């Protein structure tokens, strides 16, 4: 599969070219002919929230997304509301119960706000499901067509960790705003004058937290069922602080468009941040979404102006001579990074800038990362220790450490 073919319609619509995308999310060339489960990219992150109407406002005001579609009782959906938001190639769908008997109300009671569905764009839904079934995956929805006056979408869904699923979507014969049952919808919300047009361009990776001892099982699931390969491996010492630890492995699809780091807690002197997540989410789930931006300073400034809170980074991080030597020259003065708490990591391929928000909901569970890649295909391994110490300070303030 050439890189040209790996751009999906949403990416083309977002006017992202290949060079931008290669840089933004670290795309690589690969040969799809032997891929048993070809994935072309992300389709949508589908959230279940306590109040979809207000969450849709949050994603517009605080994350700079654009409202593009809606479904609810007015469009014939009787039990829940769904708002579809875009930023570049990224699509979020926020859903909430309308009817108290909706299964989404129960999902929200168990998990709080979170990601229920990491939907992926695939060129051949039936081929993927046949392979997944042969490999023992749980098929939640058999392949089927949904149609309306805009065409036909082919869909199916498989289960992954916890109550999370992967819906597989082929929308190559569909021109509507999202899916049949949704109507185009815009909003009167206006961004602040001077704000960048978009605060992020694409989803880079989605991290899953799983139970102690389950990480290798899920790595194996992504290998066997979905043909993903290992990208990088972080184990033990790399990401242990004095108090808590975790293990992490990263799998990705062939062109690296879709990357899934998987974490499990490791034994430490105190409760791991992964344990805190598992306790409050009520089991495994998506821990953070990394949003790719080509100007992390402007994005942090715009989000901060809207009230988004980022994890603080101690001044000692920037004053550490070892770190200064390791990161070398980056595109902005270190003082600009320090002022905002932006972290830097460098590997053999280049460097990346990154920063993490506090949890965005009421529970200490899901949060966002902003990432600006300059050649590096990593995940900020060199920052894990500094970052986790910052997370632990927050955990201690909540009395969960
Ligand atoms: Fe990350």
What does this molecule look like?
Keywords: Cytoplasm, Dioxygenase, Endoplasmic reticulum, Golgi apparatus, Iron, Membrane, Metal-binding, Oxidoreductase, Pyruvate, Repeat. It is a peripheral membrane protein. Belongs to the 4HPPD family. One of its GO terms (molecular function) is metal ion binding. The chain has about 400 residues and is an alpha+beta fold. The chain folds into 2 domains: about 5-185, 2,3-Dihydroxybiphenyl 1,2-Dioxygenase, domain 1, CATH 3.10.180; about 200-395, 2,3-Dihydroxybiphenyl 1,2-Dioxygenase, domain 1, CATH 3.10.180.10. It has helices spanning about 5, 10-15, 20-25, 50-60, 105-110, 125-135, 215-225, 275-280, 295-305, 315-320, 320-325, 335-340, 385-395; strands at about 40-50, 65-70, 80-85, 90-95, 115-120, 140-150, 150-160, 165-170, 185, 200-210, 230-235, 245-250, 260-265, 285-290, 345, 350-355, 365-375. The strands form 2 sheets. The chain has a 9-stranded mixed β-sheet with strand order 6-7-8-5-1-4-3-2-9. It has an 8-stranded mixed β-sheet with strand order 11-12-13-10-14-17-16-15. Strand 2 and strand 3 (about 80-85) form a beta hairpin. It is globular and about 60 Å long. The mean pLDDT is about 90.
């Amino acid at each position: 599969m050439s890189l040209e073919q790996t751009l999906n319609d949403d990416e083309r619509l977002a006017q992202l070219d290949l060079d931008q995308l290669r840089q933004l999310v670290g795309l690589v060339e690969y040969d799809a002919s032997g891929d048993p489960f070809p994935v072309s990219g992300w389709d949508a992150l589908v959230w279940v929230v306590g109040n979809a109407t207000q969450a849709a406002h949050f994603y517009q005001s605080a994350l700079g997304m654009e409202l593009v579609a809606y479904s609810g009782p007015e469009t014939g959906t009787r039990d829940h509301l769904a708002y579809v938001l875009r930023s570049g190639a990224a699509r979020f769908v926020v859903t909430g119960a309308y009817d108290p008997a909706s299964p989404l109300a129960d999902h929200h009671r168990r998990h709080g706000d979170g990601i229920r569905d990491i939907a992926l764009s695939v060129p051949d839904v039936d081929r993927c499901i046949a392979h997944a079934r042969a490999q023992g995956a749980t098929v939640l929805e058999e392949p089927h067509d949904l149609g309306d006056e805009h065409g036909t979408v082919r869909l199916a869904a498989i289960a992954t960790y916890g109550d999370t699923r992967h819906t597989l979507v082929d929308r190559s014969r569909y021109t509507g705003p999202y899916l049949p049952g949704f109507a185009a919808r815009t909003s009167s919300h206006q961004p602040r004058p001077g704000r960048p047009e978009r605060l992020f361009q694409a989803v880079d990776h989605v991290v899953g937290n799983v139970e102690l001892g389950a990480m290798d099982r899920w790595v194996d699931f992504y290998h066997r069922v979905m043909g993903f390969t290992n990208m990088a491996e972080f184990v033990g010492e790399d990401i242990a602080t004095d108090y808590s630890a975790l293990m992490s492995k990263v799998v990705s699809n062939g062109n690296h468009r879709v990357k899934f780091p998987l974490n499990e807690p490791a034994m430490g002197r105190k409760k791991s941040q992964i344990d805190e997540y598992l306790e409050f989410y009520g089991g495994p789930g998506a821990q953070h979404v990394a949003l790719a931006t080509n100007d992390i300073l402007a994005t942090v400034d715009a989000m901060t102006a809207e009230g988004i809170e980022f994890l603080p980074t101690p001044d000692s991080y920037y004053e550490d001579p070892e770190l200064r030597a390791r990161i070398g020259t980056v595109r902005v003065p270190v003082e600009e990074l320090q002022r905002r708490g932006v972290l830097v990591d460098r590997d053999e391929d280049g460097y990346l800038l990154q920063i993490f928000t506090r949890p965005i909901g009421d529970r200490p569970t899901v949060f966002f990362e902003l990432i600006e890649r300059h050649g590096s295909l990593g995940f900020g391994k060199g920052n894990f220790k500094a970052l986790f110490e910052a997370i632990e300070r927050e955990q201690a303030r909540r009395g969960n450490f």
